[in-house]
Amino acid sequence: MPADGVLPPSAAACPGCIATPVRAAELPLPDARLSLSLPGIHCQACIATVERALEAVPGVRSARVNLTLRRAMVDAAPDMTAADLIPVVEAAGYEVHELDQGALQATATDRAGRDLLMRMAVAGFASMNVMLLSVSVWSGADAATRDMFHWISAAIVFPAIAFSAQPFFRSAWSALKARRLNMDVPIVLAIVLALVTSLWETMLSGHHAYFDAAIALTFFLLGGRYLDHRTRAAARSAAEELTALEVPRALRFEDGAPREVAVADLRVGDLLLVRPGGRMPVDGAVVEGHSELDRSLLTGETVPVAAVPGQAVSAGEVNLTGPLTIRASAVGQDTSLHRMADLVAIAESGRSNYNSLADSAAKLYAPGVHILAALSFLGWYLATWDGRTALNVAAAVLIITCPCALGLAVPAVTTAASGRLFRQGLLIKSATALERLAAVDTVVFDKTGTLTAGAPEVVNLSAVDPGAVAVARALAEGSAHPLSRAIARAAEAAGIAAAEVTGIVEVPGYGTEGTLPDGRRVRLGRAPWVGAEAGAQTEAWLGIGGAAPVAFGFADRLRPGAAEVVVALQAAGQDVILLSGDSTGPVADLARRLGIANWEAEALPQDKAARIAELAAQGRHVLMVGDGLNDTAALAAAHVSISPASALDAARVASDIVLLGTDLAPVSEALRTGREAVKRIRENFRIATVYNIVAVPLAAAGLCTPLIAALAMSVSSISVSLNALRLK
User: Fold this and answer.
1) Which CATH number describes the domain made up of 24-99?
2) What does the alpha-carbon distance between residue 644 and residue 653 come to, in Å, rounded to a whole number?
C-alpha cells in the first residue's frame, strides 16, 4: 500500500472502478417512439402481418399494434422517422398515416372510468358491512347493542359516502350554482338528509337509522353511472385526432438544400420539399415539379388530381408520384386541416347540448320529490309538534322516492341495446345515441368508402384485348397509382400475365411508359399524354406505338348491403340523401344505381357541415353515415352519426356509432333498435312513477321503516333492469 493510501490505476480492483469523464456527445440517444394510424386493419392476422413487417426493418426495436385504436406504436433507433416505416406498411398492403404522439397524450388513459369503478368498489364494500350490522338490528338487537351497531355503521358510512358520492355532490352543486335542477339534486338531498337523520337518531338511542339505505343507494347509483360511462368509453375528441394527423415535421429549403424542421417552425413564404408518398404539411401552391395528389381523405375524390406549378394544395393531401416544391401560404392554425379540426370541435360542443330523457325527467321529478318531502315534514310537524318525528318521515319520503330506478332506467336500457347492436356489428359509443336514433327522419350518406368500397376497380376488362391487358399490367406494376394498382389486380384475377416491357419509368403527373421487345413505345396514363380524348368516366388509357389508344374504365364498387339498406330506409319512410365530395359523374351514377333522388357532388367539408346544419334548421333529425376526414365535421354536427370501422380514426371518434363489419345492412337495424330502446326507457320511467305512487303514501303515513325503504328501492331497481333486458 503506498504511503498516501491511494492505489495507482493499475492496482484498481476492476477497470470500472476508475472514473473516466464521458462527453455528452458520447451518451446514447434515447430511442424514437413513433405512432402510426392504421385505419384498414380489422383482425388478428392484420396485427401479426403489420408487426412482422415493422420488426423486420433494421433499427426497429419493437412494434405493437392496437386493434381497438387501429394504431401502431414503434420503438426504433433515434435517427429513424415515420417516413422510413410508412412504405414498409404500405408494401404489406395496409393504409398508414403518421400520428403526432404528443397530440394523443390526453387520450391515453381512461381515468374517469377507473375513478368511478374505485368509488363503486368502496361503496359496495361499505354497503356489505353495514348491511350485516343492520341485519342484527332488524333481528332484534336492542339498547346498547343496537346503539353500538349504529355507531359502527356511522363510522363506516360517513367516510365511504364522503369519498364515493363525490360525483353526485359535484354534479348537484354545479346544477344549483347554475340555478337549475338535475337528477343528482334529489339524490344528494336524500343521502345528506338520511345521514343527518340517522346520526341524530343514533345520538338519541333511536330505534331506526338509514345508514344502510344511504350507502346502498350510493352503490346502486354509482353502478348506473359506471354503466353509462362504459357505453361511451371509446369516445375521444375528434378534434384531437385531426390534430394528430397533421404532419409533425417538414423539409424546408435553407441555403438551397432541404432541411428537416418542426412544422411549428414554418412560416408563410417558406419553400418546402414534399417527397412522393408524403403528406402536405401546410396550405400553399406548387412552385416546381409534376405529380398527382390524393385528396380522398379531405374531399372524397376517388381519382388523384394533377399537381403542376401553380396548383393550390392543402394540408393533409398526399403527394403520389413525384417530388414537389411548395410555397407555404398558410401554416399552423391557419391551415385547412386545422380549420377542419376547429369546425369539428364547434360541432361537437353543439351536439353536447342535447337534452337527454333522464335530464328531462329530472326537471319534473326533482321539484315534485322536494315538495312531497316538505309537505310530509310540515304535515307531521303540525300534527304532532314533534320535529324529530316530522324529520324522520321527511327523510323516509326522500329515500323511498330517491330516483334509484330513474338513475338506472337509461343505463340499463342502453347497456342491453348496446349488447344487441354489438352482436349485429354496431358499437355504440355515445350515452344518448340510442335516444337520438329514435328521432331520425333523414339519413345522409357519404359516397367513397361508405356506400362504396373506396377502391377503384376495372369495369371493362373483358372487353379489352388480352394482349393489351398484358402490356397494361406490366406498366401498372411499375406504379403506385391507385388506378394502376386496380389494373394490376384485375389482370392478375383474370389470369393474364404481364407482357415483357423494358425501361419502365413513371412520369410524375402523367403515367408510366416503357418499350416492347419490338421497339414500340407503350404508355399507360392520362388521356392527353397517350393521345386520347378524355371522357366523363374515370379512365386510364393505354397507348401501344401508333395504334389507337385503349381505355380502361373504372368504378367504385358498392359496399355489401348498400343497396339493401337504402331500400330498407326508404321503405321505413326515411329521406335518404347522398352527399359527396367526389365529382359529379361518379356521384350521379351511384345515385342512379341506388335509387337516391336527392344527391349533391363536389361538396367540401364545410359544405357538408353546412348542409347538415341547414337540414337541422328545417326541423330534420339527421343520421350522417361517413368515413373520411371530409365527413368529420358533418359527423359531429349531425343529430346522430355512424362511421365504418375502416374509417379514419378522426371520423370514427366524431361518430356516435361504429359499424364493425363491411355490411351496411345493420344501419337500418340501428334505427329500429333506437326506437325500441326509447320505448323501454319510457316504460322504465312509468314503472318508477307507479312505484312512487304506491310507496310515497306509505312513507308519508309514517309506515316506512329503513328496511321497507331498502326493499322498495331494490324492487324498483330490479323491475327496471328486467324490463331493460327485454331488448335482448
Assistant:
1) 3.30.70.100
2) 11
